[in-house]
Write a structure and sequence with these properties.
- The protein has about 190 residues and is an alpha/beta fold.
- The protein has one domain: Nucleoside Triphosphate Pyrophosphohydrolase.
- It has three helices and eleven strands; from the N terminus they run βββββββαβββαβα.
- The strands form three sheets. Strands 3, 4, 7, 8 and 9 form a five-stranded mixed sheet that branches.
- β1 and β2 form a beta hairpin.
- It is globular, with a radius of gyration of 24 Å.
- The termini are far apart.
């Protein structure tokens, strides 16, 4: 692609930046480490996560949440976890550079019901093993095994942990005597 075909925009400082269309791919993972997949309405027999274009004026997070509502229905509640991966790819002849951002979401509650963009699609939750054993064909970029694995690995890292007790009960003197006791059972003097 020649430099003359790249669209640019100038900052107030005068610095020029290339501009590209952007899309979000939104894998949603549930507590069983399963990915939410829809059978592609444009490619029967192929499966895809929630995805779509970033609209003018939207942040990546706003676009990801909008696409979840539009494609998976308003009853599906998700928790944004963060970006898993970003890449550029050729979309078609006029758009030879598009930015694609994979934005991970955790399923909190609610059922997925295909919205307008996915109307008539089958819906399923699939583990990484089921994707392989069932021979599911996924559309890019989640057709890449390493990216699916990274998605689930990062989901597991972000799982809420049980609360950690940071401090025991406070005594009337303002400090926890049991935590500061000398080996003989008497509290150590305060400083």
């Amino acid at each position: 692609m020649g430099r003359d075909r790249i669209h640019t925009i100038a900052a107030a400082s005068g610095r020029s930046f290339a501009t590209f269309p952007a899309a979000v791919v939104v894998p949603i993972v549930n507590r069983r480490a399963e990915l939410l997949l829809f059978e592609s309405p444009r490619r029967p027999g192929w499966w895809e996560p929630v995805n779509g274009a970033v609209d003018d004026g939207e942040t990546l997070l706003e676009a990801a949440l909008r696409e979840v509502r539009e494609e998976a229905g308003p009853d599906l509640q998700v928790r944004p976890l963060g970006v898993v991966h970003a890449a550029t790819f050729a979309y078609d002849v006029p758009i030879q550079r598009m930015i694609s951002v994979v934005y991970l979401m955790a399923h909190e509650s609610g059922a997925a019901v295909p919205g307008d963009d996915m109307r008539g699609s089958r819906v399923r939750w699939a583990t990484l093993d089921a994707i392989e054993s069932d021979g599911l064909r996924l559309v890019p970029p989640l057709d890449q095994t390493w990216l699916r694995q990274r998605t689930v690995d990062l989901f597991r890292l972000w799982q809420p942990e049980p609360p950690v007790l940071l401090q025991g009960p406070i005594s009337a003197s303002g400090w926890n005597k049991a935590d500061h006791a000398k080996p003989g059972g008497t509290p150590s003097p305060s400083r």
